[in-house]
Amino acid sequence: MNISEIVPENIKKLKPYVAGKTIAEVRNEYHPDSISKLASNENRLGCSPAVKPAVIDALESIQDYPDPIAEKLRTAIAEQNHVKPEEILLAAGSESIISILCRTFFKNGDNAVTSNVTFVGFFVQTGVRGIELKKVPVTTGYGFDVDAMLNAIDSQTKMVYLANPNNPTGTILAAEEYRKLVDGIPDNVLLIADEAYYEYAKGYPDFLPAMEYRKENVVILRTFSKAYGLAGLRIGYAIAHPDVIREMIKAKLTFEPTAAAQAAALAAYGDFDFLRKSVELVEKGKEDLYGFFDMNDVEYVRSVSNSVMMILDSEREAVDFTQGMLKKGVILRRINAFGLPNCVRITIGRESEMDHFKNSFKKVYGPKKGSLLENEQKK
Ligand SMILES: *Cc1c(COP(=O)(O)O)cnc(C)c1O
Predict the structure, then answer these.
(1) Residue where a domain terminates, one of 230, 248, 271
(2) How far is the CA of 161 from the centre of ligand 1 (A)?
(3) Does residue 196's CB lie within 6 angstroms of at least one atom of ligand 1?
(4) Residue 39 shares a structural domain with residue 139
(5) pLDDT per residue as tens digits for the range 165-191
(6) Which of 30, 35, 92, 195 has the smallest C-beta neighbourhood within 10 Å, fewest atoms?
(7) Residue 379: which pLDDT band, with cuts at 50, 70 and 90?
(8) Ranges for the Aminotransferase class I/classII large domain (predicted)?
């Protein structure tokens, strides 16, 4: 068999996902005193204590298929968002919802518009579907360029993807810019408003939740993977017009999300106390990190999500820095796959993890930029 003859060009072009190192791999390779995983924007506080008993309870009927539309959970989500249950779709994470959107709405020859620095999940899923992606360069402040995105829309455009707040930059579209984008998009083009960091962004004065300026062509994505701390269970949801949701349900995998994920999400969704603690930890951690970076002359982007992006001078520096930190047990994320080879993303963790970051930073980064390598060699 000649694999290359049977694989379509659009799949050949895709690059395999390069996962960050796991805690076990770092322990085995470098034997650091402790490990802080600040690479994947997970909730370092874990998840609500209500989750574990709910999952154990769900295991009692694990031989049965789950409810395909997760009625209980979707009713709870509908209530909190003041919409009808028919406006909600649950799936195995928002990445799955992006895939469902691609399967439901694209036909060959369609294209999509987004920015060149954003969540790779959208790059991948449009690539799998063989859809041309028009990537508009970010502004100098690493934000979405609304005018350029509107200009990129043509008669073949089916979707515009916006992550707000964005990943990896942590930036948001100011409320006025968001309204301009929504108003400027033709009725028959879907705006995908990915709000994976909604819970963190909610309190920021200039953040306009998509729910508050909603039209029939807007699809809002939220997830339980970040603030709710359920990344390992895979569950997220879309809020959209009932007609949009009805079509999407046809294309989703019938029995996603799993019964355990549904039970966990329902338990987590009602724990406002845990959510508040999680958001507060991140707020405090970001302020503290900004202060630390200012003192050490590090360039960074202020963030509305649960991570902060630091800007180094070159890809070489970014590689050396993340590698040096890894040896100290601090796992960070280089974001070359997101379009910024000279940048590194730091997830805000618990106080002890942030101390680990800062102490290791001093040894690896050195007092001044450009001395990365020397510092590594001296040890
Ligand atoms: C983390 C992230 C997601 C991932 O969501 P899952 O629900 O875990 O699939 C989606 N969008 C953005 C912008 C993210 O940063």
Answers:
(1) 271
(2) 13
(3) yes
(4) no
(5) 999 999 999 999 999 999 999 999 999
(6) 30
(7) very low
(8) 37-357
Structural domains of the chain, count: 2
> Which residue's alpha carbon is nearest to atom 7 within ligand 1?
93
Q: What is the reported pLDDT for 214? A: 95
**Model's pTM, two decimal places?**
0.94
Give the pLDDT confidence score for residue 374 in this predicted structure: 47
* CATH number of the domain encompassing residue 102: 3.40.640.10
User: CA 211 to CA 377: how far, in whole Å?
Assistant: 52
Q: How far is CA 53 from CA 43, 245, 314, 318, in A?
A: 19, 31, 47, 42
Q: Are residues 181 and 230 in the same domain?
A: yes
**Residue 361 CB–ligand 1 contact under 6 Å:** no
Q: How far is the CA of 359 from the centre of ligand 1 (A)?
A: 30
Nearest atom (ligand 1) to Cα of 118: 13
* Cα–ligand 1 centroid distance for 235 (angstroms): 10
Outline where the chain has alpha helix (H).
Answer: 3-6, 9-12, 23-30, 51-59, 71-81, 94-105, 120-128, 146-152, 175-184, 198-201, 242-251, 259-269, 272-295, 315-327, 351-365, 372-378
Would you say residue 376 has pLDDT above 90? no
Task: Express each pLDDT in 277-324 by its tens digit.
Answer: 999 999 999 999 999 999 999 999 999 999 999 999 999 999 999 999
pLDDT of residue 369: 52
